[in-house]
Amino acid sequence: MLDEAILHLDNITMKFGGLTALENVSFRVKPGQICGLIGPNGAGKTTLFNVICGVYRPTGGTVRFKGETVSGLPVHRIARRGIARTFQVVKPIPRLTVLENVLIAGASDLLAGTWLPFTTRGQREVRDRAMAALVRVGLAGEAHLPAGQLNLGYLRRLELARALIMNPSLLLLDEPVAGLGYDAVEDFLALVKELRRDGLTVLLVEHNTGVAEALCDYMLVLDHGRLIADGEPGRVLTDPAVVEAYLGKDDSLGPSA
Amino acid sequence: MNYWAVLATTVGIWVLLALSLNIITGEAGQPNIGHAAFFGIGAYTSAVLNTRYGVDFWPALIIAVLVGALVGALLGLISMRLRNDFLAITTIGLNFVTVAVFQTVPYFGGAMGIGGIRPPRIGGFTFGPLELALLSWVAVLLVVLLNYHLQRAWFGYALRAIRDDEAAAAAMGIDVRRYKVLAFVIGTGIAGLAGSIYAHFMTFISASDFGFNISVTILAMVVLGGRGSIPGVLLGGIVLGMAPEVFRFISDYRLLVFGAILVLVMRFFPSGLLGQGSRLREWLVGVFRREGAGVHVR
Amino acid sequence: MFLQQAVNGITIGSLYSLVALGLTMVYGIMRVLDIANAGAYTLGAYLGVWAYTRTHSIIVALLVGAGGAAVTGYWFQRVIYTPIKKVADPIVPLVASIGLFIVMEDLFRLIFGPYTITFPAHLPFNRLTLGSVVITGTQAAILIISALLFLLLWLLLNRTKIGLAWQATAQDTETAMAMGINTRSVVAFAFILGYIFAALAGILVAIHYNAVFPTMGDIPSYKMLAIVVLGGLGNPLGAIVASMIVGLAEAFVAGYIGTFLPTDAIAFLALIILLLVRPQGLFASGGETR
């Protein structure tokens, strides 16, 4: 029975000059969970993601992944250990094809080798894996288009494919359905649930609490850089502290999508 | 016969320079408008080794490549801190400073340059014009093959990703610093190679051979031909390399024509004549390969 | 000696400022390093000397030089730079500008001949002697005209509507457009003004050294790059400060040490060292790191 946390944040503090973006944030994510990170605008959700992925080095506290400390490691090393993330603003490499974008993401081990990058070794195998990832997210037909030509919904799926090909154990999704229409959102949520069935752990930032409630088994609420509640969605969303954090903002609580 | 051999060697050296710059500016997308500095570093290294220390061409060549690559590594590291326009200007500055050093420091012959550089030898046989032409074009062939291989290897993908969007490349697990430095090292090393061949071909070099105007010409070859496109760069190198001879009849208007070509090509073929997305390239691809749409040609 | 070199330095610095301002204004508005700006410098000198030999009026010479440069700047911007700018890659406009500069220089050579022409202008300023310091008539003219132009530019940028529109466009073109600013006019205006400044600098230099020749734009073109980056790309005040620093440095080195390195090498060496320490230049002005 795996009760060990796959991701463990211990007193994470993040300061930028005089501004404290995160303060003493601690939580654990269990393997196989879909964990939602919610909170009003500016609460620090994306900053927290950035800390976990190594974009920022935390001012204080540690991040442990699968038992090992990863805070302080560079981005590409953390990526190779099994944490994959998507971005709110999708950053594909526009002039390369969709397939090539996923290919590069999947070859990070090869690209890090001393001599391997100068060879073409493994290209066929990674290309197959890339194609498989594209199939998994439903983008197989667009494989040879320049990534810059995709619409938003497809771009989000490309992001997901790029994350998936790295065979992550933990997937960080940063507002993956923002700006998508109703149908696209439904499709995406179904996709995420499928991925969980394959054994992935997911941590997602979601602005819309309704979407988060529909998807997550576990929720974390951030406000002004502090963790103010965590637990099951039903309980968390009715927690008075959480309700108060949202009062006066233009987000509305409740199961509406 | 000699005339053609000398022309061939000259063009060969230009093509080497263009191919080497292509790795840095074409594939990796790092602006480098001071590439002649590395050409000069290679030439002077080889010349000094040969005239002062009696080192023969072949070992001098290798050392010239290494020295060029070393300085290139420094530039690569610097390029991590500087973006685009700043980097471009720094490379220009590097060019000027290098030329100034060669021109004033007595060890490098000062304003008089270095003369009496001995041509390459194998055993007792000294290279003549024909052999030098062969040498330079064998080098071109090897470098072309290297370029093609690198383009197809993971290295090429990493460089193209960095060229297009550095931040996205980093997020995908690419060690941007390492690849940028590698791109510079390989590019400047080959420029050093070209410099060494040049020194032993001309037997006399001076600082003004490696000035900013040379850097501009090399850049023009890459940019006009199509950054990242090996056939394009070859075309640019050969055409511009031969231009002074071919356009001898308009020799008085040479600069004018050169400048006009730069402006016009940039205006109407911004990715180069054979670069990705150029109408000319697509037309040629259509003519030479009757395949359906959707084939991604590099 | 010290004061004399200081005066010399400030004079050179003022000249550099005018050209640097032209370059930095164009960069600030369009993120384009316009080497052809130095062509306007030479153009101004040639038009100025041509006008002066016919009218013997400095004022007319300045106006004709400025006018010709203004038209050139407008057309370059309209026909070459704005269409090219749509391709995001910065090396393309840079190479185009180098091409334009080469074309301009060669045209000057073909039209006016490769030899140096003199510019025997009689300036209405007399030489001033203050203690051990001598300020020649030309130096006085340069200092006064430059000061007037700096003032004019400052007023323009900070006190007029177009100046504020300019600053907005330089900071963020899209937002400026959304606010209803006609960015195309602002860009055209920036180019015109930038080229006028370069031309005026060219005329003053031509008078100062009594020489006009086709390649006179070479040294300023590259030195300006170093100066403009030193001062922070797009920052007019920075350009002036950096110009003064370089001008003073050159004057003092020339006065006390003698020339040991070509002067553009000195400027670039200083630049490289500075950039290593502070990659955004002396005064950052937004938009450099990308």
CATH topology of chain B: ABC transporter involved in vitamin B12 uptake, BtuC
Give the name of the CATH architecture of chain B: Orthogonal Bundle
| Architecture (CATH level 2) name of chain C | Orthogonal Bundle
The run of helices and strands of chain C is: HHHHEEHHHHHHH
Question: Secondary-structure element order of chain B, as H and E?
Answer: HHHHEEEHHHHEHHHH
Characteristic terms for this protein:
heterotrimer; A: 257 residues; alpha/beta; 6-stranded mixed sheet; 4-stranded antiparallel sheet; 10 helices; 10 strands; 37% helix; B: 298 residues; mainly alpha; ABC transporter involved in vitamin B12 uptake, BtuC; two-stranded antiparallel sheet; two-stranded antiparallel ribbon; 12 helices; globular; disordered C terminus
General description of the model:
- The complex is a heterotrimer of chains A (257), B (298) and C (290).
- By secondary structure, chain A is of the alpha/beta class.
- Helix content of chain A is 37%, strand content 23%.
- Chain A contains 10 helices and 10 strands.
- Chain A has helices at 45-53, 75-81, 98-106, 108-112, 123-137, 152-165, 182-197, 209-215, 233-238, 240-246; strands spanning 7-16, 19-29, 34-38, 60-65, 68-69, 83-85, 170-174, 201-205, 218-223, 226-231.
- In chain A, strands 6-7-8-3-9-10 form a 6-stranded mixed β-sheet, sandwiched between helices.
- In chain A, α3 packs across α5 (123-137) and α5 (123-137) packs across α6.
- Chain A is globular.
- Chain A starts with 6 loop residues before the first strand and ends in an 11-residue tail after the last helix.
- Chain B is mainly alpha-helical and 298 residues long.
- Chain B has one domain (2-273): ABC transporter involved in vitamin B12 uptake, BtuC (Orthogonal Bundle), CATH 1.10.3470.
- Chain B has 12 helices and 4 strands.
- Chain B has helices at residues 2-27, 36-53, 57-81, 84-104, 129-152, 154-164, 166-171, 176-202, 212-225, 230-246, 254-268, 279-288; strands at residues 114-115, 121-122, 125-126, 204-205.
- Chain B has a two-stranded antiparallel sheet with strand order 1-4. A two-stranded antiparallel sheet of chain B has the order 2-3.
- The longest helix of chain B is centred in the middle third of the chain and has 27 residues, at 176-202.
- Chain B is globular and about 50 Å long.
- Chain C has 290 residues and is mainly α.
- Chain C has one domain: Orthogonal Bundle (ABC transporter involved in vitamin B12 uptake, BtuC), CATH 1.10.3470.
- Chain C is 74% helix and 2% strand.
- Chain C is built from 11 helices and 2 strands, in the order ααααββααααααα.
- A two-stranded antiparallel sheet of chain C has the order 1-2.
- In chain C, a hairpin with a 2-residue loop joins β1 and β2 (133-135).
- In chain C, α6 (161-171) packs across α8 (183-209).
- Classes of the chains: A alpha/beta (257), B mainly alpha (298), C mainly alpha (290).
- At the B-C interface, α4, α9 and α11 of B face α3, α4, α9 and α11 of C.
